[in-house]
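[Automated response] Your request has been received and processed.

Submitted sequence:
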Amino acid sequence: MSLFVDIEKRLGSFRLKVCFETADEVFAILGASGCGKSLTLKCIAGIERPDRGVIRLDGRTLFDSGKRINLPVRKRRIGYLFQDYALFPNMTVFENILCGTGDKEAARELAARFYLEGKEQLYPAQLSGGQKQRAALARMLAAKPDYLLLDEPFSALDNYLKSRLERELMEVLDEYGRRALFVSHDRNEVYRLTDRIAVMENGEVADIRSKRELFEAPRTMAAALLTGCKNVSRLEYREDGLYALDWGFYLRTADTGGQMEQKFRYAAVRAHYFEAVRELSEQDKYNTLVCDIIREIEDAFSVVILFRNQCGEQTGDYSILTAEFSREEWNEIRERTVYRGRPLCLRIPEQRIMLMER
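Generated structure:
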């Protein structure tokens, strides 16, 4: 059982060109706003018509430009949770859910399941953003669709309710055999809820990988940034090795030992991968720097440090780096460095450096 999508569509100067296939899994499209995520879902659901291509679900052809097949929305049997809810404004919550099932008892059960008890007779205009989204989710599931399309399903929820609904959605996805396409720009949502991820950039799929592979070793700078990596640098090959232009120091990775084919253009490292060292020796040429601290930012459970390489020749837009430590770890590091007038020295472990070709 699978969803196969190979389509193109042009809207003004924007061109969507995507190709992917899902199995029994929660498949995600991760991308920045305006990259074409929602347009892809609308083409699959039948709301938008691609200019060319094929869409098949479990062997059923939903769209084929060559064969002039374009099934209407009602015949595709796809549940779509819209980003803007799309509830019927002249119907109550209960009536909206009932539209999907026709079974009053089932509608009541869904209202309770999504924390809408006591709200059944309210109209969409009387609901909060989170309540509208829950009502839309209940209505979608009431129709018992073959496949689910989820467009930013938690964007209007506070953290507590988001956590509750995420757990509920996990159960729903398991009940559906994990047959869903999940669209988001939130890397944490995507990681918690999905199995494979397609990175979308400027209307095209740049990479498709399992979530673990994508977060551990992104292949493109766009994928690194979308998965939350705060530190990226352009690379230059010099006589002494691989040089990070934006950071101002030489790199060595676990795989290369400092020597490699000259194909990588960017390097990246996640903020929590930095390690503090007591001091730097003359041999500490690779992956090390003395920090010129710009700002300390306290998070709920950690401390974020913005800094530059004090001894480097930073030349680019990414010369400010970010490191993150637990409160306890940073207090200990600060006690032995900043408070005593000593420099903060950081090192990136060789196995933590991510290299990308584009």
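Summary generated for your ticket: The chain is about 25% helix and 35% strand. The longest helix spans residues 159-175.
If you did not submit this request, please reply to this message.
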